[in-house]
């Protein structure tokens, strides 16, 4: 594809408005310097340096959308009546994400993963312990009702919906079915970032699973010889318009229904050398891909830009976002033949 054409298509990502529905969470990063062993117990004492609050899981997907389209994004999930509830809402708001559709669930914890890391003068910083605060059981019928009420209000106002499933209880069958039904009623695009339970997402416009999860769903390993067959099997079983299969170092594969025919395209990885951390890369891909689809791009073009975005964020540690300017700069560095 001509680079100039793709640069113009990247600009289109600024236009759509996206609703992210899913499991919202915080990553709390606590850093300190090692001082000594405690007299109370055989544990390290850290002198606190800083605490960073980072948006993870569905929060990271929404943050990626916000970074690309200038804040035309809203969050719909649940949070608890604990210390971290207001922290989650404020951190989302500070990232330009509308939180008016978030639902308070007093029976649940606000999902927070706290990582405590320490360093001394002659070593690098290392994680010592991680503390998870979360509720994994499905939300109650009462909370489901409130979530669906907000879906009815929100979906007509947006161009598309991202379903971000981290198996923390928000995306029940009833909630997913409501998203699909309401979106079809208003002709909106739904993209699901799924790890399992593929059939639960039957009828969404597109899905973005990785290869290992796809293999579990199909019951066999995917290789170059059966890749095309595998993708279209998932496409048909889940009744999708398109499927974006992420394949790690092997890049991506796109499977589309196009004018009553099937189209298959392999996209090589744009960056295999500077991979530091793949954490959150899937959120970047689904955010970019969904924006592309909602902007009227083909699934192939949207996936190429998603691949480009992932090649940027995996060069940094932890969850990161990218921007339109960064995407353009990275594209200009690539050789024309890529």
Task: For the structure shown, list the relevant keywords.
single chain; 338 residues; 4-stranded mixed beta sheet; alpha/beta; 8-stranded mixed beta sheet
Explain how this protein is built.
The structure is a single chain. This protein is of the alpha/beta class and 338 residues long. Helix content is 35%, strand content 26%. The strands form 3 sheets. An 8-stranded mixed beta sheet has the order 4-1-9-10-11-12-13-14, with helices on both faces. It has a 4-stranded mixed beta sheet with strand order 3-2-7-8. The N and C termini lie close together (8 Å). The mean pLDDT is 90.
How do the helices and strands line up, and which of them pair or pack?
Blueprint: H1 3-11, E1 18-22, E2 24-37, E3 44-57, H2 58-69, E4 73-76, E5 78-79, H3 84-94, E6 103-104, E7 112-119, E8 126-133, H4 141-154, E9 160-164, H5 173-185, E10 189-193, E11 206-207, H6 211-218, H7 227-237, E12 242-246, E13 252-258, E14 261-267, H8 281-294, H9 299-313, H10 324-333
Helix pairs in contact: 1-10, 2-8, 4-5, 8-9, 9-10
Write a brief caption for the model.
The protein is 35% helix and 26% strand. The protein is an alpha/beta fold. 43% of the residues are buried.
């Amino acid at each position: 594809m001509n680079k100039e054409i793709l640069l113009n298509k990247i600009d289109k990502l600024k236009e759509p408005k996206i609703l992210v529905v899913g499991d919202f969470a915080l990553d709390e990063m606590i850093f300190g310097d090692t001082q000594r062993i405690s007299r109370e117990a055989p544990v390290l004492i850290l002198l606190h340096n800083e605490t960073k609050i980072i948006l993870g899981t569905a929060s990271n997907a929404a943050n990626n959308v916000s970074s690309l389209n200038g804040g035309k994004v809203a969050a719909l999930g649940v949070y608890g009546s604990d210390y971290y509830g207001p922290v989650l809402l404020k951190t989302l708001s500070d990232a330009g994400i509308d939180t008016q559709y978030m639902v308070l669930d007093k029976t649940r914890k606000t999902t927070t993963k706290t990582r405590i890391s320490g360093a001394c003068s002659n070593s690098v910083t290392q994680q010592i312990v991680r503390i998870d605060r979360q509720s994994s059981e499905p939300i109650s019928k009462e909370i489901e009702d409130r979530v669906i009420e907000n879906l009815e209000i929100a979906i007509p106002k947006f161009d598309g919906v991202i379903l971000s499933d981290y198996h923390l209880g928000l995306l029940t069958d009833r909630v997913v079915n409501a998203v699909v039904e309401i979106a079809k009623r208003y002709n909106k695009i739904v993209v699901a970032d799924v790890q399992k339970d593929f059939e639960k997402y039957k009828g969404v416009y597109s899905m973005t699973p990785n290869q290992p999860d796809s293999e579990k769903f199909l019951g066999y390993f995917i290789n170059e010889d059966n890749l095309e067959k595998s993708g279209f099997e998932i496409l048909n079983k889940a009744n999708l318009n398109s499927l974006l299969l992420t394949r790690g170092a092997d890049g991506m594969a796109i499977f589309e229904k196009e004018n009553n025919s099937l189209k298959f395209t392999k996209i090589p990885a744009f960056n295999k050398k500077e991979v530091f951390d793949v954490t959150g890369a899937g959120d970047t891909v689904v955010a970019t891909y969904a924006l592309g689809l909602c902007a009227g791009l083909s699934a192939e073009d949207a996936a190429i830009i998603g691949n480009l975005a992932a090649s940027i964020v995996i060069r940094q540690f932890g969850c990161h976002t990218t921007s339109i300017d960064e995407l353009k700069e990275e594209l200009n560095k690539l050789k024309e033949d890529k």
